[in-house]
């Protein structure tokens, strides 16, 4: 049995696995029990993810992000869904080893792949295991929203369709609001940009959310672009394997008098509150916020997960690694707090 004696950092919580659900031959869902004292910390938004600490004989542990497929409105317990990937250590270890009653160390929910308005009309696009955060959004919007929803779901074959029964039941229960469009590679081949554009043409006014393999996401992006869907109406979720250890607590910053004298100033809006901070040029925004005890959203601190995405309202920053942001995102002012360092003397930033 997998047990965790003590969390490896102040942010993480040890969760017990209440249930393991075999979704397909290569995908399983893990349902977690959340201790009473951690309930508030594990409140989540539709489409967010959890970061799991997975034991490793070689490195001690690896950190992996898995989307919540559950809805905070319709499910009593949080559930992540894990699909095996070829040569993927984390996904295969979880699918091979985790049983009900096991414990895992988990970081609180994170991520910004979530609708601002559940009443909006939604075009949800999923490829393979990309259905997991999309399913969370779908169930939440059906329960709490009023808009129409179209789900486009691409898979290799019928046996690969995760949540097939649940999707069928949701469509039957909500015929006026939900349309589910399946695309099977074994039947229709890979979806082309032209085919996607034709399918999406009736839904260009909808807010689009997409998650799946990179070629799938590129095709959806291109199709929506051809149809003239505004960039601020399209939202993509991207996961990369985390190389560092997001479970370790950050060490206090050591800032010299010279660095402090040359620091920029930043006004940060977080959860509706405004904080005025000194921002030394060599430190990232996440670093200085953590050093001041602020509950800044972050996971990897390596520019790989997007949890710390925020918007520059005034001023300019430089970023070492911002590959997960599209050029259009950067043009619109989006930055990664864990990669951002100040260029101008004064900045305003909103989370």
TrEMBL record:
Cofactor(s) recorded in Swiss-Prot or TrEMBL: FAD
UniProt keyword annotation of Zinc-finger present: no
Residue span, FAD-binding FR-type domain: 10-116
EC assignment: 1.14.15.30
Gene Ontology molecular function: any one: FAD binding
EC primary class: oxidoreductase
Keyword Metal-binding: yes
Catalytic activity: androsta-1,4-diene-3,17-dione + 2 reduced [2Fe-2S]-[ferredoxin] + O2 + 2 H(+) = 9alpha-hydroxyandrosta-1,4-diene-3,17-dione + 2 oxidized [2Fe-2S]-[ferredoxin] + H2O
Coiled-coil stretches noted in the UniProt entry, renumbered to this chain: none
One GO BP annotation of this record: lipid catabolic process
Stored Pfam families: FAD_binding_6, Fer2, NAD_binding_1
Stretches assigned to the 2Fe-2S ferredoxin-type domain: 264-351
Keyword list, A-Z: 2Fe-2S, Cholesterol metabolism, FAD, Flavoprotein, Iron, Iron-sulfur, Lipid degradation, Lipid metabolism, Metal-binding, Oxidoreductase, Steroid metabolism, Sterol metabolism
InterPro entries (UniProt xref): 2Fe-2S_ferredoxin-like_sf, 2Fe-2S_ferredoxin-type, 2Fe2S_fd_BS, Beta-grasp_dom_sf, Cbr1-like_FAD-bd_dom, FAD-bd_FR_type, Flavoprot_Pyr_Nucl_cyt_Rdtase, FNR_nucleotide-bd
Protein name as annotated: 3-ketosteroid-9-alpha-monooxygenase, ferredoxin reductase component
Organism (species): Nocardia speluncae
């Amino acid at each position: 049995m997998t047990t965790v004696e003590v969390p490896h950092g102040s942010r993480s919580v040890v969760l017990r696995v209440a249930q393991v659900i075999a979704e397909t031959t290569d995908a399983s869902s893990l349902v977690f029990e959340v201790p009473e004292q951690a309930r508030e910390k594990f409140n989540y938004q539709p489409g967010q993810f959890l970061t799991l600490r997975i034991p490793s004989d070689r490195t001690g542990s690896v950190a992996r992000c898995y989307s919540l497929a559950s809805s905070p409105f319709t499910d009593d317990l949080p559930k992540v869904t894990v699909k095996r990937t070829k040569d993927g250590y984390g996904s295969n270890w979880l699918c091979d080893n985790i049983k009900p009653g096991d414990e895992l160390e988990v970081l609180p929910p994170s991520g910004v792949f979530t609708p601002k308005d559940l009443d909006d009309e939604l075009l949800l696009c999923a490829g393979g295991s990309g259905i997991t955060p999309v399913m969370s959004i779908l169930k939440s919007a059906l329960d709490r929203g009023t808009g129409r929803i179209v789900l486009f779901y691409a898979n290799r074959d019928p046996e690969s369709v995760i949540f097939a029964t649940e999707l069928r039941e949701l469509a039957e229960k909500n015929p006026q609001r939900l349309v589910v469009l399946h695309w099977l590679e074994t039947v229709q081949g890979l979806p082309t940009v032209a085919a996607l554009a034709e399918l999406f043409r009736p839904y260009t006014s909808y807010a689009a959310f997409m998650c799946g393999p990179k070629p799938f996401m590129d095709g959806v992006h291109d199709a929506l672009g051809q149809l003239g869907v505004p960039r601020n109406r399209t939202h993509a979720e991207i996961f990369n394997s985390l190389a560092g250890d997001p479970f370790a607590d950050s060490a206090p910053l050591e800032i010299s008098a010279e660095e402090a004298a040359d620091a920029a100033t930043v006004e940060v809006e977080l959860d509706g509150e405004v904080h005025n901070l000194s921002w030394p040029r060599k430190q990232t925004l996440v670093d200085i916020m953590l050093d001041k005890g602020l509950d800044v959203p972050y996971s990897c601190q390596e520019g790989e997960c997007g949890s710390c995405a925020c918007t520059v309202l005034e001023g300019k920053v430089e970023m070492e690694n911002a590959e997960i942001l599209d050029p259009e995102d950067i043009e619109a002012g989006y930055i990664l707090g864990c990669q951002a360092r100040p260029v101008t003397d004064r900045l305003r930033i909103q989370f």
